Amino acid sequence: MTQAVVGSTTGGSTVAGGTGDDGAEAGRGERRARPPVRDPGLDQRPWGPARLSDPPLSPLSPEGEAAILAAVLHLLSETGVDFGSTDLARQLRAAGCRVTGSHVRMPADFVTEMLGRVPARFTITPRNAARALHLGEGQIHFGPISSATHVWDLERGKRIGDFAAFRDMIRLSQMFNCVHFMGGYPVEPADIPVPERHLRCMAEMLRLTDKTCHAYALNPAQAEESMEMVRLAANLSPSEFAAAPRMFTNINPVSPLRQEAAVMEAALRFARNGQPVCVTAFAVAGATAPASTAGAVVLALAEALSAVVALQWLVPGTPVMLGALIPIADGLSGAQVYSGPASARMIQMIGQMCRRFGLPFRASGGCTAAIPDGQSIWEGAQALEAAQRSGATMVYHAAGWLEGGLTASPEKFLMDCEILQRMARYEDPDLTATDPVSLAVAQIEAAVRGVAGFAASGPHPGGTGFLADLRPYEGRQQEGGIWTSERAHRLAARLLDEAQDPPLDHAAQEALARFEAAARLV
Fold first, then answer.
1. Reduced to 3 states, what is the DSSP secondary structure of residue 469?
2. How far apart are CA 180 and CA 121, in angstroms?
3. Which of 83, 258, 364, 481, by CA, is between 20 and 30 Å from 76?
4. Which residues pair with 187 in a beta bridge?
């Protein structure tokens, strides 16, 4: 049992001992699939992503889709993209691109040809094979907030992120079956020096979760070190690691129409080792991108596609996803608004274009609210619904996001998980079943004759939820009238106090610790 509690400061790393099913005696290579290591006693659904049952929305008419495509190809072929690297530009020149220094213009037919190399679907298998992600196959996978600089809880308020908060958020993500992957550091631990932060954080993430992990692509050296740690934690040989996706990275272009050389080189390191790259355009409509929805979509697609095309030319067949996160600059407050009607439409438009390109799509949750209040829920719910209806296969920032991504919150994490469970339940095929039992004609006739009545349906895992209070007002008030965020705060504290970290075999623990220590000395 760990002793991490929301609002408390925890000590050093805690690693589960023993070998379990995947002990050192199992040897190298693929480990047996095993179920989640514990049930935290929540009313939650079994592990697994939801399969999208409805066709995704296509808000663009055929003419609108063609207009978007023409505008994107014009930007790529005539305006061009600055890749920040003359070496990378020279390699693209060999493909027939027009190059001036580090500036690259990509012919439309070249773009189309490279998009044809992208796998329409792929699987990422982490150290626990039962947690594999099947991307691009009609399933939707959710991840928690990542890269927040601050943390907020009901007891201590807002504060700079630290290693204790980082560990708490990962443990919560491990516990909840509706969270399928780690999208990066849930909160940046400012108490860990930057030069060694990626080492300590990746090592700790691999100890505290057996789900798929994301690694940042900030520079080539960090990319190589992150991949090595994932390999060691999974007890794989270098060839076994490179043979199939085990993790993934995410990169962001710089608006307008720029790529960072170090980031692109890091992404190429992942690609050359067989690991997927998600290219996510982060353009602020009305600030770094046009204020019109179509204009922001065109810029976002051009920026993301330029990196996708470069990756396919240099490492053909690299598994990639195209992502988008397009907040809107509010003209009155200056705030970046992460959820609303326009944001929802832009995500749906980009999802439609990804289907045309044959690319798996990554969307995002999000809200602008600073605390887990009503605003945070209506904003977050709309962002998540937009992602669900866009056909996204991966959704970043689906739980725990506050204040435009600046702040992570355990309370908001639990509140968002309630929404995620309901979204998954919505996709269950039994809700639209029309078999004889579901049609219930005999039951209706019996009730009409007075022979029998109707009965409430039995409980469904995750159907009621773990935070919802279904009592009337008087019953709620008898116990102090506790608001949802306070119930979430109490539950998060209990869960963290009871948390048990997933097994990690002794050989992997030692190898990971040795590598981390040696890398920190360099």
1. coil
2. 17
3. 364
4. 148
* Residue 467 tokens, joined: 């935070």
| Residue partners of 182: CB distance under 8 A and separation at least 6 | 143, 144, 146, 170, 173, 205, 209, 211, 212, 213, 214
- Helix/strand/coil (H, E, C) string of 391-431? CCCEEEEEECEEHHHCEECHHHHHHHHHHHHHHHHHCCHHH
Q: What does the block give as tokens for 368?
A: 């602008």
Distance, CA of 423 to CA of 428 (rounded, Å): 9
The arrangement of strands across the sheet holding 103-105 comes to 81-82, 103-105, 98-100
Place of tokens 């520079």: 219
Cα-Cα-Cα-Cα torsion 66, 68, 72, 77, nearest 10 degrees, comes to: 40
Q: What are the structure tokens assigned to 405, written together?
A: 């991504």
DSSP lists the bridge partners of residue 103 as 82, 100
Q: Which one-letter amino acid corresponds to residue 71?
A: A
User: Mind listing the pLDDT tens digit for each residue in 281-312?
Assistant: 999 999 999 999 999 999 999 999 999 999 99
Kindly state the DSSP code that residue 130 receives in the 8-state scheme: G
Using one digit for the tens of pLDDT, what is the confidence trace for 454-507?
A: 887 766 666 668 898 888 999 989 888 899 999 999 999 999 999 999 999 999
At residue 83's C-alpha, the angle toward residues 77 and 85, to 5°, is: 130
Closest Cα to residue 265, out of 46, 467, 121, 87?
Answer: 87
Cis peptide before 502 (omega within 30 of 0): no
